[in-house]
Model the fold of this input.
Amino acid sequence: MTTMQSGRLSTDRPAPEPTLSAATGASAATISAATNSADFHALGTGIRVVVTDPDVLAAAVDAVRGELSRVDAACSRFRDDSELSRVNAAAGRTVGVGVDFIDALDVAFRASRLTGGIVDPTLGGTLAGFGYDRDFALVERIGDEPAGSWADAAAVGSASGPAVRRPTIAVEIDRLAMTVRVPVGVALDLGATAKAWAVDRAAAAARAQIGAAGVLVSAGGDLAVAGPPPAGGWPVRVTDDHAAGPDAPGQTIAIRAGGLASSSTAVRRWSRGGQPLHHILDPRTLRPAAPVWRTVSVTAATCVDANIASTAAVVLGWEASRWLARLGLPALLVGAEGNLVRVAGWPEPDPDDPAPHGTRPHLASPEARSHPIRPETRS
Done:
């Protein structure tokens, strides 16, 4: 039996604000800080933990490490011993799993329902067929290859071709028996939700350990905050690449609550057989999403909701700004040639910013319509 949780993308959080602080924001959610921050590597990316009280930093980091380790053991596509890898390798057999993995599947299939299937967790095999079957640092080292295993996947459709008619895929999730079964020939990929969900969990876990202090947790540029923010909010530099320097083109905003996530086709790129590829697939074509948006950044009540929306926006292409506006989700969309669209209250840039985002004049954002969205409800 397939079990899923109901819910809606949640927006009950303050919209981001431009920060006028002289402090330098770092790229895509890495925050400028000194003794109140710590950096380490997990989930295949850079992690930053920042607190408002340096005395509680060690406790916050321990809590964050613990949560990220649990999610990695459950959801990593690049660990043979993860629960995700065991389920994908079971070839249609039922596999016993832990509560973390079942919770992660609930989040992933909620994302699919909320986006009408645009964010699809059952495309792991297709993504691997395009060559993204290992840690991305290894994909980059391989570079361009002659047409091979990816060719069958590439032949299924194209970004501009007709929609692919896909059968309904029934993933059986039994929470009482703690088992999961994936049909033969199907592989799950939780990349659109698992990291952001881990960030939300990590921020909540850290907050529970540090008393009255506030905390920000960033993983590869996707972040969640918990507790009281510093005066003026958490300054965040939003850019195409979270690993870019603080002077990279972008915009510094202030986050006071909730989460922020960015989805980009500009960073995780590679080629096979001379074809440029990226990691965000369109389930309607079984191809990398058409290159309408280079980067989409979204704020929401949680990091995972922000990441669901940013991923879906990349796939939706020209329809993305209207979709985000209807949902009332503040967002910044950066086009392939640098044109900008601000949606639903995303702030205008600081005119004194020495490295503004984009290379073209700002476009008028669509008018956001009233659309009350409530936090996810879980049964």
The mean pLDDT is 76. The CA atoms of residues 39 and 252 lie 20 Å apart. The longest helix spans residues 57-75. The longest strand covers residues 293-300.
